[in-house]
Amino acid sequence: MQNMPNKIIVNTRFLTQPITGVQRFALELCNRLPNRLEGKRIVFVCPKLLKSNKEKINFKVSEIGKFEGNLWEQIDLPFYLKRNGNPLLINLVGIGPVFYSNKITTLHDLAFKHFPEWFSWSFQKSYNLMIPKSLRHSRYIVTVSEYVKLDIHKTYNIDLSKIKVIHNATSNKFKNLNLIRENIILTVSSIEPRKNLSRIITAFKSLDTDYKLIIVGKKNSSFADTELGGVEDSNIIFTGYLTDEELIELYNKARIFIYASLFEGFGIPPLEAQACGCSCIVSRITCLPEIYKDSVTYCDPLDVGSIRVALNNLILDKNKRQELQQKGFKNIERFSWNYSAEKLRNLIEIDMQ
Question: Domains, the chain, ranges and CATH?
């Protein structure tokens, strides 16, 4: 253990959580990190990891400490780092140990800052209190789009040179299976206020169509409660959480995917839908035009009428759906987990020089 300064530590507390967007980012990058960088061994540490996530990793994890959650991250992890020579820490999800300075921190977006009402009281209070301190005690900050990079810079007055963009991507599992498409409008997200599901449901119910609206996702305790109308409609189906295999099949059966979110740092689900050959509607807000360019149809997420028109136009226009399908295949080529992992490796190497 005396040689710990010759190691790099990766915080994998995310393995104690269900794998959604931010955890997916961390998981895909960790799976692509080498065993050693610049002669230093990479060590992955976490509290007791979630049993269901063990099969998703190809790296060895050391379970340390006695606490869980934030207490583990703020007490057990800093103590472990200090005891082992204060090595470089890579933090890919969440707050990270606030006052530990030899670290690279990842921040996916600032929704908690701009829209605290979307989150549980405890979540937004802890993030608004601790994130600014953690960022200022970081060597570099990683984020997932140029939009968020500028937002961090403007909000916290952090030098742009300290903030690095490493994009999300899609797993190779998400691909077009050439299944027969059905009259399905699909949306995939947590059941939370910023995903704007109530307006999607209202817009859908105003359509004269035989399509079904399928909503994939579940509630998360980090977010404020979301009241949704229309659940009594037989053409609106809530599936809850699905496995990747179940989700890929749905992406391949749906004709239209809609993501009318009110705020995003990147927005992975439309990229997954594009990989599976599903034409997409997304909001014209925050980072989404940067990520999706002309490969989607855009809507105003605050305007139910705009969402309705976008849905109706794609339902009626088969040629437009086919055009967006081809543009979607080209768009996903801009993003690769291998390339993103290479950017992270390069950043770590630069930091160690």
Answer: 4-169+336-352 (3.40.50.2000), 182-332 (3.40.50.2000)
* Block residue for tokens 């269901």: 52
Long-range contacts of 217-221 (CB under 8 A, 24+ apart): 217/188, 217/189, 217/190, 217/191, 217/241, 218/190, 218/191, 219/190, 219/191, 219/192, 220/20, 220/190, 220/191, 220/192, 221/120
pLDDT tens, residue by residue, 292-338: 999 999 999 999 999 999 999 999 999 999 999 999 999 999 999 99
DSSP β-bridge partners for residue 125: none
Helices (H), 103-196: 111-114, 121-136, 146-156
The pTM (predicted TM-score) of the whole model is 0.91
| Rounded Cα gap, residues 256 and 30, in angstroms | 32
